[in-house]
Amino acid sequence: MRTARDSRTNVDWLESLRSQGPRADAVYAELGRVLRRVLHRALAGRLHVSDAAVDDFVQEALIRIGANLDSFRGDCRFMTWAAAVAVRAALSALRRSHWRHVPMEEAQIDALPPTTEIGASLEASTDRNRTVQALYRVIERDLTERQRSALLAELAGVPQDVLVQRLDTNRNALYKLIHDARKALKAGLEADGFGVEDVRALFDT
Amino acid sequence: MKLKPDTLRQLARVIVATRPDEIDCDEWLARVGRLAELERAGAPLPPDLTPVRQHIEVCPECVEEFKGLLLALEDDA
Predict the structure, then answer these.
(1) How far is A134 from chain B (nearest CA, A)?
(2) Which of A5, A52, A133, A146 has the lowest CB atom count within 10 Å?
(3) Which member of B1, B10, B72 has the closest CB to residue A41?
């Protein structure tokens, strides 16, 4: 499938990027130009993202795309997949950059500060309060320390790249750790008599 | 332990959205292109994309990337 702005077919892109020499160089340069426009749109409205930073993101994206051509499934436009890879590269870099400036004590995943009291809107309902207390109970009872740390850190906005480093693991293993934690919470709440609708009431207005 | 109301709500959302089998972020990245194109076209999602859609209900980084991807594709109308 082609659009006016993407004159190459998926096959064109793949064959050209897998070729050698000047043909490949020219296609990578073309891809880089397109990804630069893609990232400017994707990052629109974000402060402090310089053109130089976008250029770095594009270079990282080109490396990742070149190394992972075999993972392109062919079920969408090649440029859409390439854009997704580029957006991930850019946002990952921005998150790492942000957390570089966060003081260590704020980033310690095992020392997340207790925050404000439960809001009045949640306390107002006795049923909701019971569900909240059950949730706290299950968090303490049914999660391992590692699961609890990872899940709460993710909710606090700690980037996965940072968590992977702190927990000495990899991104997919981290996802499984947090997935297991969520499943344990869901199962623990159900075992205690709190179903999906009780939990849904905590965020439904 | 106390969580902020917004954090509590977010935790409740991801608990509700949790499924026994989920795809991880790498598989999501490989499959999200098709989801993005179909959503932009307003086309119905086939069942095989359900896990891809579900993933952005539970993964905060991937949902941010999905929003960025949709912005990136806006010029392709």
Answers:
(1) 12
(2) A52
(3) B72
Distance, CA of B12 to CA of B18 (rounded, Å): 10
pLDDT at B1: 67
DSSP three-state, residue A2? coil
Asked if pLDDT for residue A119 goes beyond 50, the answer is: no
Q: What is the pLDDT of residues B12-52, one digit of tens each?
A: 999 999 999 999 999 999 999 999 999 999 999 999 999 99
Whole-angstrom Cα distance, residue A180 to residue A51? 40
CA dist., res. B39 & res. B41, Å (int): 5
Judge: A5–B76 Cβ closer than 8 Å, yes or no: yes
CA distance A191 to A162: 33
Q: A29: exposed, middle or buried (C-beta count within 10 Å: 0-12, 13-18, 19+)?
A: exposed
What's the whole-number mean pLDDT along residues A141-157?
93
**Which pLDDT score is estimated for A134?**
94
- Distance (Å, rounded) from C-alpha A185 to C-alpha A151? 11
Q: How many helices and strands (H and E) does chain A possess?
A: 11, 0
* Burial of residue A199, with CB atoms counted within 10 A of its CB: 0-12 exposed, 13-18 middle, 19 or more buried: buried
* The amino acid at A157: G
Q: Do B24 and A115 touch (CB under 8 A)?
A: no
Query: Which residues have CB under 8 Å from B15's CB, separation 6+?
Result: A182, A185, A186, A189, A199
Q: What is the DSSP string of chain B?
A: ----HHHHHHHHHHHHH--SS---HHHHHHHHHHHHHHHHTTPPPPGGGHHHHHHHHH-HHHHHHHHHHHHHTGGG-
C-alpha A138/C-alpha A136 separation (Å) is: 6
